[in-house]
Design brief:
- It is a single chain.
- By secondary structure, the chain is of the alpha+beta class.
- The longest helix is centred in the N-terminal third of the chain and has 20 residues.
- The chain has two helices and nine strands.
- It has one domain: Sandwich (Immunoglobulin-like), CATH 2.60.40.
- It has a four-stranded antiparallel β-sheet with strand order 5-4-8-9. The protein has a three-stranded antiparallel β-sheet with strand order 1-2-7.
Length: about 160
C-alpha cells in the first residue's frame, strides 16, 4: 500500500514539473488585412483571407497548419484550413493567406439576418482560429472588428 502511495505521489510531482517546463507565451495578435476572391464550386463562394500575425514573444513560433472560422453579424459565414508551415520570429510579424469557403446556406443566412436599413459596410465580425504547432505548441486566437464586403462603397475590408 505504501508503494502505491509513493508511485502516485511521484507521478503527481512529475506531472507538475512537466507543466513548469511548458513555455509561458503571450497570445499572438491577429488582424484581418485583406480578402481576395477565389474560384468557387457550384453553390459556394471562396475567398483568400489575409491575416497579419504578430508574435509578441521572446521566442519564435513554429507552425504547421492554420484553421479559421469567420462569423459575421453574429452568424457563421466562412471557414478554412491551410497546411502551410513556417516560423514567425521573435517580436516579428507575417501575413498568412488562408482560403475560406462560404456555402450558399451561409450567404442565405446572412441575407436573412440583415435588416432593410443595414448596409454591407461596418458589419461586426469575429475571427477564431489556431496556428497548429504540435502537442503543446498550438496557439489559438480571436480577432474582432468591423468589415465591409467587397464591392461596397468603401471597397475594402
Amino acid at each position: 500500500m505504501r508503494s502505491i502511495h509513493a508511485v502516485i505521489l511521484s507521478l503527481l510531482l512529475l506531472s507538475l514539473s512537466a507543466c513548469a517546463l511548458l513555455p509561458n507565451r503571450d497570445p499572438v495578435n491577429i488582424n484581418v488585412v485583406g480578402i481576395e476572391p477565389l474560384q468557387g464550386q457550384d453553390m459556394e463562394v471562396r475567398f483568400a483571407l489575409k491575416i497579419r500575425v504578430q508574435n509578441p514573444n521572446d521566442s519564435a513560433i513554429d507552425y504547421n497548419g492554420v484553421a479559421l472560422d469567420l462569423e459575421v453579424n453574429g452568424q457563421p459565414l466562412a471557414s478554412g484550413v491551410s497546411d502551410q508551415s513556417g516560423s514567425i520570429p521573435r517580436f516579428a510579424e507575417t501575413v498568412l493567406t488562408v482560403p475560406v469557403s462560404v456555402s450558399a446556406f451561409s450567404v442565405l443566412r446572412q441575407t436573412l439576418g440583415l435588416s432593410r436599413t443595414q448596409t454591407l459596410n461596418n458589419l461586426p465580425y469575429v475571427l477564431r482560429g489556431k496556428l497548429a504547432g504540435g502537442l503543446f505548441g498550438t496557439m489559438r486566437f480571436v480577432d474582432s472588428g468591423k468589415l465591409s464586403l467587397p464591392g461596397t462603397v468603401s471597397g475594402t475590408w
